[in-house]
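User: Here's a chain of 187 residues. Predict its fold as tokens.
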Amino acid sequence: MFNDRSDPLRLLLTRRSGKARDLGPPGPDAATLATILAAAMRVPDHGKLAPWRFIVVEDRERLADTIVRLHCAGRPEAGRLELQALRDFAHQAPALVAVVSLVKESHIPAWEQELSAGAATAHLMLAAHAAGFAANWLTGPAAYLPGMAEALGVAGGRIAGFVFIGTPTRALEERPRPSPEDVVLRF
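Assistant: Prediction complete.
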């Protein structure tokens, strides 16, 4: 099941996102997901603060209800189609991990802690790829709902993203990548 790890650079160069709505079974089993999460924890973490939390979402209906409830608290006029789209968001792909950035009181700047949460999310994506799956890191309206991190059990946190993991049901499309000339500078 695992992708060829004998060439780590090739693994990095072939990672790409699969659309969450196009990720079907199988997803990672419990042991594989535990390994993916262990890899996600091996990120730079100045001060050893672990300024992130991973919430493995097992009850998708509960998540959908939570998203709709929090959304309606701020937009009570939300229409049926809008609410259905929010419910559908929660039910994509076989596995779902919410990553929460949890900045801690410390001499370590908040920015460094937030970057660590982003790195943990990226590691999660890479580990899923290494395990033979595709993943999709999404934020969208659900990530920015007031109270979402608290509803997931992480008071004081902010959603870094929802990572959907599964097996592509269609070929993954390569997207345009920036040209090195446009993004690599010399000083």
